[in-house]
Amino acid sequence: MRTLDHVAFRAALLTGATLLPATAFAQTVPGDTPGTTQQPGTTDTNPAVTNESLDDVVVTGQTTRDRPLITASADITYADRGAIDRRAPRSTADLLELVPGIFVEGTAGQVSNNYSVRGLQGGGQRFVQLEEDGMPILYGGGGADFFFDQDLTIDRLEAVKGGSSGVLTVNGAGATINFISRRPNFNEPEGSARFTLYDYGLKRGEFYYSQPLADKLAFSVGGYVQSNPGVRKNPFDYAGWRLKGILEYRFDGGGSIRLSARGGDVENAYYATQPYRYDNGKPAEIPGLDTQFGNIGGDSFTNIAVPVSTFAHSSGFREFRGRDGIKARTAQVRLDIDKPITDTIELFARARYLKYSYDFNGIFPGSGTGNAGLTSAVNYITPGTNSPINDLLTLGTAAFPTLTRFGIKNLRTGVILGSDQVAELNALNGNGFLQRTTLNHDFVDGRDFGSNVGARWEFESGRIKNSLTVGAMYYNSKRAQDQSATASVVNDVRSNSDIYDIVALNAPNQEIGVLSDNGLVSYGDWGAGIRERLDSAVSLYANDEIAIGDLRIDGGIRWESIDGEFRDGQAAAVNQPVPAGTAGVVRTVGSTFNGQYAITKRTQDKIAWTVGANYLITPSLAIYARYANGFQTNNTDPITTIELYEAGVRYQYGRFFSGTATVFRTNFNDQNYNFANPTNPSQQQNLNADLRTEGVEIDAVVRPTSWFAVNFQGVFQKPKLKNLQLDGVDQGSAFEGNRPERTPAQLYSITPTLTLPNGFGELYGRYKFVGKIFADNGNGVALPSYGVTSVGVTLNLTDRLQLNVNAENVFDVIGLTEGNPRQGQTQAITDGYFYARGIVGATFGGQLTLRF
Predict the structure, then answer these.
(1) Which end of the chain is more exposed for a tag (fewer CB within 10 A), N or C?
(2) Which residues, 6+ apart, have CB-to-CB distance to 844 below 8 Å?
(3) pLDDT of 425-469, one tens digit each?
(4) What is 249-292 written as a DSSP string?
């Protein structure tokens, strides 16, 4: 990661520190030579080397051409290919850790991770817009990592937090993270191939190739194929591929037209919470379930038929397919045009159409019951308030009046244990626990069209330079969701856990009846689950940047009007019966979609605006300040506003030091989302609150010699809750001043890099510290701070062959990123046990990259 190298100020602002108008203006300046940049798949192994060789000029958060980072009035971060490879990302979320102030909860696997920025509560990713080449991957923001991940076709990452982000893109008031693709090579053929292998079973092959086809025509193509069981123990292996191609033609007199397409079909493992225990105030494993690599999911969840409303699925069943994990498919086509009209006026146009879907089969231990669902097998099958399935046992008593007791039947082995076999039950898997696990089958099918057209006019006279960009964006998206048939099973607590039927037994513990349905103890737990969202949004924007000598003043404004439609599938007044022949005593499918929709339509509009200034005190010292007022749309829900104040200083001292320090205050107003009722976690409530965060952010490089450098990135902040309401009821001082859920007050990383002699490579390390967080807004459970150490080495074996070997979490640290997301706002530890999501233990692997 580089911040402000002396000679990189211009390049880092030309390249990383500048992005284009409104998240969509990606261009090549006349006379540059795309395709002659650093070879794909190679790491810059000299920390003193600058980014001068990166000739593409892409501006994120700024609209002036050739504006150096030291003169920027926005909080901008730039990570080149070398920084990306040092991070050795296993997910898109891993890459976001290169941006100071972004808190990543990278515990779900390769996709579906949570991330937030500057004090926003955990899971606030919808305020962070992920882009590819200056256009949002999805209009709505959150969930984009299902449909994008980096490979050798990506050249670098650029990010801007707050400020101009909310003006120059849609739904990016918190931050914009822009992944910049390599441009086709117009000079000569070039390519690379990479093979990646990790100890947990990941096998991935990548490639990139580009060459000119004619004097003004060139193409590139690249992507990957992989097989990946996921980082936790898993009997399944998940396959996938992504492919991207670009065809570019250069106009006489400058500018270009670029046609690109990408597609993919990728399966991934998914991990939710799992049980932990407290041991002398520290998280520890439950006997029989490893904290670092344990995984509840497995063979028993391969395929489970769940009864459902026939209006949702005409067969009356919907299959939960744990074998598929998360299956995401994408198909996109895109057109980019840049054309200078005169020496001072340039036109641009961007348009892309994305067709996507994902089939999410997620296993959620503890959801709907919270910690109360984690208890002994004896409690489960003993009627009374201590049983998490007491309602089911009550039905069983009525259905089988001659029963003597209840028992459990292992669906894999057929072994039955009665409630009187206490010793055997308490010895189950070494812990004696059962748990209630929710099967969340969520299918989304969508399309997303986006366009951005506009012009830039540049004027210069004496000491005055001005750049004005104006444009219009249009987005039209549709998202259909099927989350019906969310049900729960009873399973044990171990990796590759077994599912159990609840059975009625006679005196000699022989089965006389079954209460559950192949382990299913409830249906329709999360409502009817059928809904659609349609959005049609128009934005008009303008951004002006003027320089008067060493003073630069920026101002931007965007007006957006959105027509939203929400089609909410309605639940029947009387639930449908289960299909004929369904086992068990639960006789309805639970919440039943009745085939009808409640339709809400709403047109809303809002203005985002920002103003900033930068003063260059000396060529090596600058100060800047900015105010921004941005917003987030959310279909027909009320628009949420974000207000940002920030001021910073940028300084460099030769090659020895370069860095930025920023103080900030963010006001996130009217944060609105659903959560679990504290007293009944199976019920959802609405939360509305204001968040206030003050903090300081640091991003600096110290380079005492030409062969050694240390990069420090960190944020130290004080996030607080204000004016919290539950279902519209003011909570007074009950939560006032609490820290928002899953938000650390301290978050930093230290990355030393040592260059080996004769350009042979580099050694690098990384220490990441995450401060204490709270599992929910009630601040009831504090998840401890933790630090993760990673190390790696890059070896240039030949001019064309490079080996990178790295290890993550080398000291096998236990780190928790959230508690049970369905537990509610007053989460507590029950009998020393609780649910949480944890990072994985020590893993290692590497990449072999060949350039040709």
Answers:
(1) C
(2) 198, 199, 805, 806, 807, 808
(3) 999 999 999 999 999 999 999 999 999 999 999 999 999 999 999
(4) EEPTTS-EEEEEEEEEEEEE-----EEEEEETTEEEPBTTB-TT
If phi over 0 gives left and psi between -120 and 50 gives alpha, with beta otherwise, what is residue 813?
beta
With cut-offs at 50, 70 and 90, classify the pLDDT of residue 90.
Answer: confident
Cα angle 11-15-18, degrees, rounded to a multiple of 5: 110
Among all chains, which residue has been given the structure tokens 């070896």?
795
Give the tens place of pLDDT for each residue, 35-51: 333 343 444 443 333 33
Q: Is the pLDDT of residue 337 over 80?
A: yes
Cα separation, 682 vs 675, in Å, equals 10
Retrieve residue 150's tokens.
Answer: 């980096």
Report residue 89 as tokens.
């990302």
Burial class (CB in 10 A: 0-12, 13-18, 19+), 114: buried
Q: Are 835 and 366 in contact (CB under 8 A)?
A: yes
Closest CA to 775 of 731, 813, 822, 814: 822
Alpha-carbon span 413 to 348, nearest angstrom: 65
> Looking at the chain, how many residues does it have?
852
- Using the 8-state DSSP alphabet, how is residue 640 labeled? E
Stated as kind and residue range, the H or E segment containing 377 is helix 377-380
Cα-trace Rg, the chain: 28
How far from each other are the two terminal CA atoms of the chain, in whole angstroms? 26
Q: What is the pLDDT of residues 595-608, one digit of tens each?
A: 999 999 999 999 99
Section 354-363 average pLDDT? 97
* Both structure tokens of 535: 């959005």
8-state DSSP, 54: -
Res. 770: pLDDT tops 80: yes
CA distances from 103 to 119, 150, 351, 548, 572 (A): 9, 19, 31, 37, 41
Kindly report, residue by residue over 566-586, the tens digit of the pLDDT.
999 999 999 999 999 999 999
Tokens 């960009």, located at residue? 469
**33 has pLDDT over 60:** no
The residues facing 370 across adjacent strands are none
Let me know: does 480 contact 444? Beta carbons within 8 Å.
yes
How many CB atoms are closer than 10 A to CB 684? 17
- How far apart, in whole angstroms, are the C-alpha atoms of residue 19 and residue 349? 15
With b for 16 or more beta-carbon neighbours within 10 A and e for fewer, the 351-363 pattern comes to bbebebbbbbbbb
Band (pLDDT 50/70/90 cuts) for residue 697 is very high
Q: Following DSSP, what letter does each residue of 11-36 receive, concatenated?
A: HIIIIIS---GGGT-EE--TT--TT-
- Distance, in Å, from the CA atom of 648 to the CA atom of 12, rounded to the nearest integer, reads 17
Contact residues for 719 (Cβ-Cβ < 8 A; gap 6+) = 119, 120, 691, 692, 693, 739, 740, 743, 745
Amino acid at 11: A
Which tokens in the block code for residue 685?
A: 């409530």
The tens digit of pLDDT for each residue in 491-518 reads 999 999 999 999 999 999 999 999 999 9
Q: What is the pLDDT of residue 38?
A: 39
